[in-house]
Amino acid sequence: MGIFGQKSKIKAAPQTIRVEKVAVPQQQSKARARPTSHPFNNGLRAGSSSNGIGSSAASKYSSLSPNSRNGLSRTKSASPYPSSADERRGAASSSSVERKRKAVTSTPRDSPAFGDSSDDDGEDSDPFSNQNKRMRRSASVDVNRKLRHKKAFGDDERDSRIIHAVDIASVAIGCPPIPGAEADGVAVELQYPSRCKPERYELVWKKDKIDAVKDILTVVRHVADTYLTDEEAKPFIDHHTSFRRQMERAISEKYRDVAAFKAALNNYNEGLRALIASGSVPRNIDKIHHLPSDLVAFILDQVYDRTVAPRVEILSRYEMGSDNVYGELLHPFITRILEQTNMTSEKVFVDLGSGVGNVVLQAALEFGCRSYGCESMENPCNLAEAQEKEFRARCLLWGVSPGRVHLERGDFRTNKKILEVLKEADVLLVNNKAFTSVLNDALINMFLDLKAGCKIISLKSFVHENKTAINDVANSILDVQRFRYHESWVSWAAAEGEYYISTKK
């Protein structure tokens, strides 16, 4: 196939590229006791993370790095497990290591974080002092977005067909019970804010597996923060007497009372079911038009932990020096760039080289847009399909409706679906950090079909100083702005770096 075709013969207009240096505010989301360890392709992590970043898909660069999911600092651990104090003391010295991701997300796996009287997710001690703290996001609200999932609140209880936590972490597969628990008494269930059946957990903990207690406590916090009014949330996360605080105290080193933990969890389940049955939860969802970025990252981490993390080693199988190199933009990075490009639920997002689909999923969940991805490598494609299936089930479980997701296999230069949707794209992501010059030149030729005003996000500029025919084409059709991303916003390096947003003229 000719790389440029006839379109590449267009004579460049005599224009000079406009490059603006814009300082990106280095304000990170507060660190939270939530998933922080997996390779989230292109991003969520999240940090939003996914990564993740959180995600999120398509990004390809460098070798897979098993480190920090969202690049955020680790919160103070209140774990009852041995050496938790040592872990806290060592957090500072290990911060440079934590900038990269581990293989699994959902917790720093070497430090199961259970609550005690000092734990509050790094937030202010009174979570009800300001409701804006419980539901915050920097971008303007997209009032046209409808968040409530149409199938989540019917008369009958639904089976969301999720992969349960117990399928990934259980006594049967070698995970020991948490301190104070017996192997035959670890089974619990967790209700989510929908009319779906609860998720099954076992109260176990093992490095590089789902931390059951931390996962449960984080779900309780997100339910109260996002789905309930201030008054409704008090029994769930009040600092002194709530269900969450009862669970934290029961599991603390002082008590290690698993029976009390299970009793508080059952009370939480019953309390949430009552609010769902009364119609309060679906009514509350109807009043909001966005999800907080940390909740988006957590849901995406849950998806990743149950699909990609158990098989993450296959992502390191690629040909070095080719275009097919794996790397990720993490959750905070993806949130940042999609906000910069004014993404909304009525727009179209495309990720060329979408890896395991993280960015595609993050865009659909966080912004509600139509979200497309295309990947050529078989292993990432297989994992992307697994993620998409779990993603749909998890969104139903959480009672929220994402934008439509479309994941394509094959070469994005020839994929018919992708070539057609590029004509509609409002935002295009290309993690071209490790792309060859031939592939970058082919992309410029593809950009000729983009509509005016389309935003192209890339890690390398498509316009450079070298005087070549293809560079003249890029110069004539693109206005380019240069930005700097924050440290720990990509999986392959802890340092800051540059990215570019080009606008099709």
TrEMBL record:
> What EC number(s) has UniProt assigned to this enzyme?
2.1.1.360
Q: Which domain of life is it from?
A: Eukaryota
Which PROSITE patterns does the UniProt entry name for this protein?
A: DOT1
Span list, region Disordered: 1-143
Binding-site list for S-adenosyl-L-methionine = 326-329, 349-358, 375, 411-412
UniProt xrefs under InterPro entries: Dot1, DOT1_dom, H3-K79_meTrfase, SAM-dependent_MTases_sf
**What does the UniProt entry say about where the protein is found?**
Nucleus
- Provide the primary localization: nucleus
Record carries keyword Transcription: yes
Q: Which residues form the DOT1 domain?
A: 199-505
Which residue stretches does the UniProt record annotate as biased composition, category Polar residues? 69-82
Stored Gene3D superfamilies: 1.10.260.170, Vaccinia Virus protein VP39
GO molecular-function term, one example from the UniProt record = histone binding
> What are the TM regions of this chain, as residue ranges?
none
Recorded GO CC terms = chromosome, telomeric region; nucleosome; nucleus
Q: Which reaction does it catalyse?
A: L-lysyl(79)-[histone H3] + 3 S-adenosyl-L-methionine = N(6),N(6),N(6)-trimethyl-L-lysyl(79)-[histone H3] + 3 S-adenosyl-L-homocysteine + 3 H(+)
Q: Does the keyword Nucleus apply?
A: yes
Any one Pfam family here would be DOT1
| Alphabetized UniProt keyword annotations | Chromatin regulator, Methyltransferase, Nucleus, Repeat, S-adenosyl-L-methionine, Transcription, Transcription regulation, Transferase
Q: Where is the composition biased (Low complexity)?
A: 46-68
Might you name a Gene Ontology BP term for this protein?
DNA repair
Annotated Acidic residues bias: 117-126
**What's this protein's family per the entry?**
Belongs to the class I-like SAM-binding methyltransferase superfamily. DOT1 family.
This chain's function reads:
Histone methyltransferase that specifically trimethylates histone H3 to form H3K79me3. This methylation is required for telomere silencing and for the pachytene checkpoint during the meiotic cell cycle by allowing the recruitment of RAD9 to double strand breaks. Nucleosomes are preferred as substrate compared to free histone.
Under PANTHER family, the record lists:
HISTONE H3 METHYLTRANSFERASE, HISTONE-LYSINE N-METHYLTRANSFERASE, H3 LYSINE-79 SPECIFIC
What is the protein name given in its UniProt record?
Answer: Histone-lysine N-methyltransferase, H3 lysine-79 specific
